Amino acid sequence: MSIRPILIHPDPRLKKKCSPIEGITSEMKKLSEDMLETMYDAPGVGLAAPQIGITQRLIVLDCEKEDAATPKPIAMFNPEVIWESEALNVYEEGCLSIPEQYAEVERPAEVGVRWMDVEGEIREAQFDGLWATCVQHEIDHLDGILFIDYLRPLKRQMITRKMQKLKREMTR
To answer: Which of 10, 20, 52, 133 is deepest in the core (most CB within 10 A)?
Structure first.
């Protein structure tokens, strides 16, 4: 397994709609393992393939944040929300591609998701709490949507300028 570099916004690759994955190959399994290792190293609770420059529909997540909790890593190939609650939840979101920036985003409180697992099996599950927020956030990445796209234009521009400055400082 290897840790991959995470793209920082603004990067045109983060705004692209990702292609479906045709089947689970050994390369796809390795990619999901690398993404989990990258996510844990960052540290974060979710990571989408476009965040490491790969425009394919793959996300990984593990929202078990307590130190004593057993990790529950999930790799989702071609995930899609198939149901969402009418009830909404507001959560302060952040993103590994937008480091050190957080904002409240309103999303459905619960969602049903269908995906293909690393063995190629179709799975469905219902998520709530942080898991629901995270899975929606990561699926958004696959459609070129960032959490800041839910914010008012002024706030979004302010965060984008901070990221441009951060990228300039990183290249020095």
So the answer is: 133
171 pLDDT higher than 90: no
The angle at the Cα of 1, spanning 12 to 101, to the nearest 5 degrees, equals 40
DSSP 107-150: EESEEEEEEE-TTS-EEEEEEEHHHHHHHHHHHHHHTT--GGGG
Closest CA to 116 of 108, 126, 107, 124: 124
φ, ψ for residue 13 (rounded to 5)?
-65, -25
What is the chain's mean pLDDT, rounded? Answer: 95
Active-site position among 22, 37, 100, 138: 138
Is residue 100 flagged as an active site residue?
no
Coil, helix or strand at residue 35? helix
pTM for the whole thing?
Answer: 0.94
What residue spans define the domains of the chain?
12-171
**17: CB partners within 8 A, 6+ apart:** 55, 142, 143, 144
Q: Do 63 and 69 contact (CB within 8 A), yes or no?
A: no
